[in-house]
């Protein structure tokens, strides 16, 4: 019989919205591109602490009043490093 142990580290980001994408940032072991609602941010996290060292918001999408309820819901980076995401 094979026994597997799964260890999951997590962190807390103070936000009223959903974190939906977490992608490691190339060339950095402690930085991740994340999406929070309609925002894209760079998260600095050591993988151990329960709070990130820094969350720097870099852009926001769909800022028009009629689509403010939209949010980034899934995505990934393509081979050239571009972020692709869908919205709901």
Can you lay out the helices and strands and say which pair or pack?
Elements: E1 19-24, E2 31-36, E3 39-44, E4 54-60, E5 72-77, E6 83-87
Antiparallel strand pairs: 1-2, 2-3, 3-4, 5-6
Report on this structure:
This protein has 88 residues and is an all-beta fold. It has a domain at 24-64. Helix content is 0%, strand content 41%. The chain has a four-stranded antiparallel beta sheet, with no helix packed on it. Strands 5-6 form a two-stranded antiparallel sheet. Strand 5 and strand 6 form a beta hairpin. The chain is globular.
Count of DSSP strands: 6
Strand order within the widest beta sheet: 1-2-3-4
Fraction of residues in helix = under 10%
- State the shape: globular
Estimated structural class: mainly beta
- Uncertain residue ranges: 1-7
Beta percentage is 35-45%
Radius of gyration: 15 Å
Largest sheet: 4 strands, antiparallel
Mean pLDDT: 82
What string, H for helix and E for strand, traces the elements in order? EEEEEE
The count of helical stretches stands at 0
Distance between the termini: 43 Å
Provide a compact summary of the structure.
With about 90 residues, the protein is mostly beta strands.
